[in-house]
TrEMBL record:
Source species, domain of life: Bacteria
GO molecular function: methyltransferase activity
GO biological process, one term: methylation
Domain Methyltransferase type: 59-155
UniProt KW keywords: Methyltransferase, Transferase
Keyword Ligase tagged: no
Pfam family, one: Methyltransf_12
Keyword NADP: no
InterPro entries given in the database record: Methyltransf_12, SAM-dependent_MTases_sf
Full protein name: Class I SAM-dependent methyltransferase
Length: 275
């Protein structure tokens, strides 16, 4: 697939996320009409890995509504969120203002982030939880990351495990509760096309642009892309918990997140790398 075709499919995704945004803003899933608690989207190990953020320049790529960006700012970071959806950026600006948080938001495709941010560099780049599947080219993404980080800077990717992405989100009407592999774990076979009127949140149907495309990326592909761009991988965690109950059989854990009954499988991973 050519770079022009990748760009076209990402424009389709951009329109889809513009259409999703008002549904997500009004959803119970995000709960933005209640007291904002953006830290509920973070596992405890994330804060341990990120370390002290006070006074550090932190960039949150593919930030959507900016809830995690707000949490990073509340931890003392000079936080910037970047997203390709104009609707998402506008919503994020409003959410941060209502939270009384000083955070900057920039609309740009992640591949254009260096230019959109005027060549600025950061101490920390944070990304994940449903972000990488919307990127067709991880080698190019990693090169952008390397240019965004200061020497010694930290990249933290906290992403849904490719095993999770391979499992169907729910059984078909004539199936039992067993989890079935429905999608590739490994990438390379091109994008998966989806056309859905409802997103992962509650709420009404998406109006207008319902089509989207996702690319599968195994952990090996992520690591290879980052090391190929000159970054050094420091740690890789795998977690069996999710911040919401994707399947009915999941149970609440002491952390407030959700876990499947045994046998335990990885659902989330945290990758720490440095430039």
């Amino acid at each position: 697939m050519t770079s022009d075709e990748h760009a076209r499919l990402m424009r389709v995704n951009q329109a889809n996320w513009d259409a999703r945004t008002p549904v997500h803003v009004a959803s119970r899933f995000y709960g933005l009409d209640q007291d904002l608690d953006p830290e509920r989207w973070f596992a405890a190990f994330e804060w341990a890995d990120l370390g002290e953020l006070t006074g550090r320049d932190v960039l949150h790529l593919q930030c959507h509504l900016g809830t995690e960006t707000v949490a990073l700012a509340r931890r003392g970071a000079r936080a910037v969120g970047l997203d390709f959806s104009a609707a998402s950026v506008a919503a994020a600006q409003g959410i941060a203002a209502r939270a009384g948080v000083d955070a900057e938001f920039v609309r740009a495709n992640v591949y254009d982030a260096v230019e959109a941010l005027g060549g600025r560099q950061f101490d920390v780049v944070y990304t994940g939880k449903g972000a990488l599947c919307y990127l067709p080219d991880l080698a190019r993404w990693a090169e952008v990351i390397a240019r965004l980080l200061r020497p010694g800077g930290l990249l933290y990717v906290v992403e849904f495990h490719p095993l999770l992405n391979s499992l169907g989100p729910k059984p078909a009407p004539d199936e039992g509760p067993e989890l079935l592999l429905r999608h590739d774990y490994l990438g390379g076979d091109g994008p998966v096309r989806r056309d859905a009127t409802h997103t992962y949140t509650d709420g009404p149907a998406v109006e207008g642009a319902t089509e989207s495309f996702e690319w599968m990326h195994g952990i090996g592909e992520v690591v290879t892309a980052l090391t190929g761009a000159g970054l050094s991988v420091r740690s890789l965690r795998e977690s069996d918990e999710l911040p919401w109950p994707r399947w009915p059989r999941m149970t609440r854990t002491p952390s407030g997140w959700w876990r499947l009954p045994e046998p335990r499988i990885p659902l989330l991973y945290g990758l720490l790398a440095t430039r």
